[in-house]
Automatic annotation (TrEMBL):
Residues 4-223 form the Tetrapyrrole methylase domain. CDD domains: Precorrin-6A-synthase. It comes from Micromonospora tulbaghiae. It holds the Pfam family TP_methylase. PANTHER family: COBALT-PRECORRIN-2 C(20)-METHYLTRANSFERASE (PTHR43467), PRECORRIN-6A SYNTHASE [DEACETYLATING] (PTHR43467:SF1). One of its GO terms (biological process) is cobalamin biosynthetic process. It comes from the Bacteria. GO terms for molecular function: precorrin-6A synthase (deacetylating) activity. This is Precorrin-6A synthase (Deacetylating). Pathway: Cofactor biosynthesis; adenosylcobalamin biosynthesis. InterPro entries: 4pyrrol_Mease, 4pyrrol_Methylase_sf, 4pyrrole_Mease_sub1, 4pyrrole_Mease_sub2, CobF. Keywords: Cobalamin biosynthesis, Methyltransferase, S-adenosyl-L-methionine, Transferase. The keyword 4Fe-4S does not apply.
Length: 254
């Protein structure tokens, strides 16, 4: 029998930001699946607790959460980033697949933010379908992303008038900033914008742990606020063991 595998975007953490479609699907499936990274990163247990709080708020029936230990990604060879991620995805696929075999019924994977934006759940689900070990039909439920919440919190428009916007990561920022003037940066634990030439020419809108009780916001000219952002980021990470932040960078334009 074909089972339902729903990838449900929960938004950035605030139960008020979960969509009505997500609530409906959460109330239709048999259990929830979530990756557990706490063995390698103990502070991330908070992220499971936040998902549990969302379920407690919105699910009107008895519910069950199944955690899947998340394999550690090999970071020994930075030059082979793509290969390491693909190997990691394969290991995660096997873990998800075994969890589905051990837990019959329809499943919702509880995805932080939106499944289509810097998240691997869609790729893993497609791999499970291709392998054919578990008969599943994949459903994607979009969620509010931290990028949208960042813009809302700061009261800014992400794009300039008639202009493009580049979504990138910290590891690509210096390259992308050389050819772009309007960038949203995610996955940047090193706060790479500190290394941009001419920091006085850039403005930044930064947010950390958006949608949580520990949300932080800073905005201004990059050269004036970047040290404050770095200090706030370090404090947030020490306090909880993790920090999720994103920022908008703009050079000129409106």
């Amino acid at each position: 029998m074909t089972r339902r595998l729903a990838l449900v975007g929960l938004g950035p953490g605030d139960p008020d930001l979960v969509t009505a479609q997500a609530v409906r699907v959460l109330n239709e499936v048999d259990y929830f699946l979530v990756a557990d990274k706490s063995e390698q990163h103990p502070g991330t247990a908070d992220l499971i607790a936040m998902r549990e709080a969302i379920c407690a708020r919105h699910v009107r029936k008895k519910w069950r959460l199944v955690t899947v230990p998340d394999p550690e990604r090999d970071r020994t060879d930075p030059a082979d980033y793509t290969g390491a991620v693909q190997t990691w995805h394969e290991a995660r696929t096997v873990c998800w697949e075994q969890t589905l075999l051990d837990n019959p019924g329809d499943t919702a994977v509880l995805v932080w933010g939106d499944p289509a934006l810097y998240d691997s759940s869609i790729r893993l689900a497609h791999r499970i379908v291709e392998r054919g070990v578990v008969d599943v039909e994949v459903e994607i439920v979009p969620g509010l992303s931290s990028v949208q919440l960042l813009a809302a919190r700061h009261g800014v428009v992400l794009n300039t008038i008639g202009g493009p916007i580049t979504l990138t990561t910290g590891r690509r920022l210096l390259e992308d900033a050389a050819s772009g003037d309007n960038l949203v940066v995610m996955l940047d634990g090193a706060l790479t914008c500190r290394r941009l030439p001419d920091p006085a020419g850039w403005r930044i809108w930064w947010g950390a742990n958006l949608g949580s009780a520990h949300e932080q916001l800073v905005a201004g000219h990059l050269d004036r606020v970047v040290d404050d952002i770095w200090a706030r980021r370090a404090i947030a990470k020490r306090a909880r063991g993790w920090v999720m932040d994103t920022y908008l960078l703009r050079r000129g334009g409106v």
